[in-house]
Amino acid sequence: MMRGFSFLLAMFISGLCFGPAAAQAPPSGQPLADVPGAIEPQGLPRIAGAIVIGFDQTGFDAHDLLLAPPGDGRVETVEGPRTRLIYLIPGDRSPLEVMRNYQAELSNQGFEVVFSCSRAACGSADRMNEALYPSGSRLKNYGQITEYALQFPRDDHQYLAARNPVTGRSITIWVAYDTFNIDERSANSTMALVDVVDGEGLEQRMEVVESVTRDDLSAAYDDQGRITLNGVFFATDSDTMTAESGAALTEIAAFLTARPEAKAYVVGHTDATGDFDYNLDLSRRRATSVVAALTGQFGIAPDRLAPAGVGPLVPVATNQTEEGRALNRRVELVRR
Question: For residue 59, how far is the Cα from the chain centroid?
Answer without folding.
Answer: 23
